[in-house]
Amino acid sequence: MQNKTVVALGAAATVAVVIGFLAVIVAIGAGANRTVAPVAQTSQSVAPSATRTIKPRPVVTVTKHETVPRIVHLPPRYVSADGEFLAAIAQDGISAPDDWAIDAGRTTCGTSYDYAYRYLTDGGIYSYHVQTFLDDWTSAHGGC
User: Fold this and answer.
1) Helix, strand or coil for residue 94?
2) C-beta separation of 105 from 85 below 8 A
3) pTM
4) What is the pLDDT of residues 23-64, one digit of tens each?
């Protein structure tokens, strides 16, 4: 009979533990649907401190930039049509040594476009500047 008593007491203890565990799970599940109210602030955190300073907001300013035309100064040794030509190619963004540019203008003036294209691109002029170079030479010198 002692064995039956021990088994009965063990079963009763196991049932009590399981019922307690289920009670805890039900309590946690029931609390999950509740909304939590915010915690009220204490009087210390509400009062502003005496040493706190308010920084001013930055002021945004808009500056308008004006486009200034590019002024090209003629080299002092070229004051004729060659000087106009050098100023024109500089204004069009073509960069070349003065002596070479004048020599290339004389060499390519009146030749075929293919010859002028090869000559000028071999000399370092970009392909998209070739026609501009030739037009600037013709307009500055009044033809070939």
Assistant:
1) coil
2) yes
3) 0.46
4) 767 667 666 555 656 666 555 555 555 667 788 887 777 677
